[in-house]
Specification:
Elements lengths: L2 E5 L5 E6 H9 L3 E13 L4 E10 L15 H7 L20 E5 L14 E5 H7 L4 H4 L12 H9 L3 H8 L6
Parallel strand pairs: 1-4
Antiparallel strand pairs: 1-2, 3-4, 5-6
The structure holds zinc ion.
């Protein structure tokens, strides 16, 4: 069962709710539908309703301040769209013998820290190739500069069930 992404009035992604709850918010004029299923519909006894994928609240709701988040591979890979930031191949494009890894842009052996702005997603092949060297020494370019993501955006990305929802969450990822 997929869930509906709720955006604040400012289009900032907030949370996921059940599709039924989302529809109720819409029917009560608390929210409007931003994206809906092309074919699927919701049904009551005698009525048909659109199937909301993304809704937007009509009134702005204050959300909690940004929280510091620990680095886990799950969140790191989500931040980098499950794509190797060196060769650009997505996880599903890797060979069977390869996998995504956490990679220190400035290697730890060279004083690099395990911080959001120094870790990136790399496939095992690129990670092996780069080893304990700096990007300039290997001649590799990094596709996106590492950044500390907004906690809320990361949590939401992990719960994403529809591709179209990612678009709205990514739009709010900072410093891209
Ligand atoms: Zn790679």
């Amino acid at each position: 069962m997929s869930r509906t992404l709720v955006l604040n009035a400012t289009y900032q992604p907030m949370n996921f709710v059940s599709v039924k709850r989302a529809l109720l918010l819409v029917l009560r004029d608390r929210a409007e539908i931003v994206e809906q299923h092309v074919s699927a519909r919701l049904h009551s006894v005698d009525q048909e309703f659109p199937y909301p994928i993304v809704i937007r609240l009509v009134t702005y709701v204050r959300i909690p301040r940004r929280m510091r988040s620990v680095i886990t591979n799950k969140i790191l890979f989500a931040r980098d769209d499950h794509t190797c930031q060196y060769c650009g191949r997505p996880e599903h494009g890797l060979k069977k013998s390869e996998r995504l890894t956490r990679e220190h842009v400035i290697p730890m052996s060279r004083g690099g820290l395990t911080r959001w702005d120094n870790v990136t997603t790399a496939c095992s092949s690129c990670n092996l190739k780069k080893a304990d060297r700096l990007l300039s020494e290997v001649g590799i370019r990094i596709l996106s500069r590492p950044f500390e993501p907004k906690y809320i955006a990361l949590v939401l990305l992990q719960q994403c069930s529809e591709e179209v929802q990612r678009k709205y969450i990514h739009a709010y990822s900072p410093s891209r």
